[in-house]
Write a structure and sequence with these properties.
- The chain is an all-alpha fold.
- The chain is built from 22 helices and two strands.
- The protein has a two-stranded antiparallel sheet with strand order 1-2.
- The longest helix has about 35 residues.
- It is globular.
């Protein structure tokens, strides 16, 4: 029976994987088939907005945590106008972009390069970025037929804030106000308010929020039919398809914390209050296994999808994309030496200092003190609290990520710090879930 179940799950995962690779290739090829004419026109319309703002604007607060990435957004627009409509499959795998400068000339910024690249006379050469899928182009290029960058930003803001409201509403309904506040705090601490203004940052929040909605609405079916491994495999795959290594881990950590809390809730509802006293170490072990198993499946989805792009591109383009990708991977995980040292301490210090300014650190410490005091005075049954401790393992995930990807995480700490939203959500959710609201209500009522 166990062997048959493993075989069934393996077949299901293999089918999902192959189907997703086919769909991803088709999405990219179809988007590259769209004629460039109207896209060029709307990109041309967008130049002034980017020039006014500059490469790394800080629209609300003069802090690194609120910095936008117009550098990458301009580069994404450059890729959008560089498609070869006559050879959409090859072009979508090669991902060319225009360079309006000769080799050896002083580098010009991406916005200026984009502006010059709109006139083909200025194009000196083209370069490629084939090691990523660039799945966002499946959405961005169709949108650029009808809208400018500024208009897409506005629609992006509406869509992301709507999803944010829906997620908060569902968390409140399924897990209560306390956990909803934990999620809200974690998002505010990573400056979610500025995320929609940068297309580069947005992909991961779409994947995370949509995954949260799926988990919150269908957690019972997912648990009963043992679909969690498939779900997290799909989430990992979608992350690899859409993201440019901004804060990919949030699509794993935040939905996984939520899922563990939901299955814990299911367990309690299915048993009487008296049964909580008899919660055994088996329930804790089950949750630990759930964390490890789903994390591995997310990692497999992420890694296999990324590696598949290298293989497919190498075969179709007849170029060694695999070597280029592996070389870049070594760079991202290495310490180059010299004046800049990428150590465990330096990368953790760099990322945490972006999130925790003097002001925000005081807020977090105050909230932690209040939460811990409330948990001590009005906690749930000890066994019930112990059972959800595995979510604290999830809180450690960003630090493991930073240790592995020291180079990238430290150089780009002003956006990789958003992985720390997992730590905040996991810790605050653990504390808030452990507080027995009924005891607080009773104490206030008696007074």
């Amino acid at each position: 029976m166990k062997f048959n179940n493993i075989k069934k799950q393996s077949t299901r995962l293999a089918t999902i994987y192959i189907s997703m690779m086919v769909v991803f290739v088709l999405i990219m090829a179809c988007s590259y088939k769209i004629p460039n004419k109207r896209i060029n026109w709307h990109v041309s319309e967008s130049i002034q907005q980017l020039k006014t703002e500059g490469i790394y604007p800080r629209p609300f607060f003069n802090t690194a945590s609120s910095q936008l990435d117009n550098f990458t957004d301009a580069w994404m627009l450059n890729i959008s106008i560089s498609a070869d409509n006559k050879h959409p499959l090859k072009s979508s795998l090669q991902v060319p972009h225009r360079v309006a400068q000769k080799q050896g000339e002083d580098n010009i910024d991406k916005i200026r390069n984009l502006e010059l690249s709109l006139d083909k006379k200025n194009i000196k050469t083209t370069s490629s970025y084939s090691r990523y899928w660039h799945g966002y182009l499946g959405i961005l290029r169709p949108l650029l037929i009808f809208f400018s960058y500024t208009e897409i930003r506005f629609m992006n803001m509406c869509a992301l804030f709507m999803l944010f409201i829906v997620v908060n509403s569902l968390i409140k309904k399924k897990l209560g106000t306390k956990v909803m506040i934990s999620f809200f705090i974690s998002m505010m601490m990573v400056m979610f308010s500025i995320v929609p203004m940068s297309l580069q940052f947005s992909s991961m929040f779409y994947v995370t929020f949509i995954s949260m909605i799926v988990v919150l609405l269908y957690h019972r079916k997912i648990e009963e039919n043992k679909l969690a491994i498939c779900l997290f495999f799909i989430i990992g795959s979608m992350t690899s398809f859409l993201d440019l290594l901004t804060a990919p881990l949030i699509s794993l950590g935040i939905p996984l914390v939520t899922y563990i809390l939901l299955i814990q809730n299911n367990e309690i509802k299915q048993n009487s209050r008296i049964a909580i006293n008899n919660i055994s170490s088996k329930h804790i072990a089950d949750n630990i296994i759930e964390v490890i198993k789903n994390s591995i499946m997310w990692g497999l989805g992420y890694g296999m999808t990324w590696a598949s792009k290298w293989v497919i591109a190498s075969i179709v383009l007849k170029q060694n994309v695999i070597t280029d990708a592996l070389n870049q991977m070594l760079v991202r995980t290495s310490d180059p030496g010299g004046d800049t040292a990428f150590t465990v301490n330096s990368v953790i210090k760099a990322t945490t200092s972006v999130m925790f300014t003097d002001f925000t650190l005081k807020i977090v410490i105050a909230l932690l003190i209040i939460g811990i005091i409330a948990m001590i005075l009005c906690r749930k049954h000890t066994n019930e609290i112990i059972t959800i401790t595995p979510i604290l393992l999830i809180a450690l995930m960003p630090f493991v990520w930073y240790i592995i990807l020291k180079n990238h995480s430290q150089v780009h700490c002003w956006f990789t710090y958003r992985n720390l939203s997992i730590t905040l959500y996991a810790v605050f959710a653990f504390i808030s879930y452990s507080i027995d609201t009924k005891k607080i209500t009773s104490a206030l009522y008696l007074r």
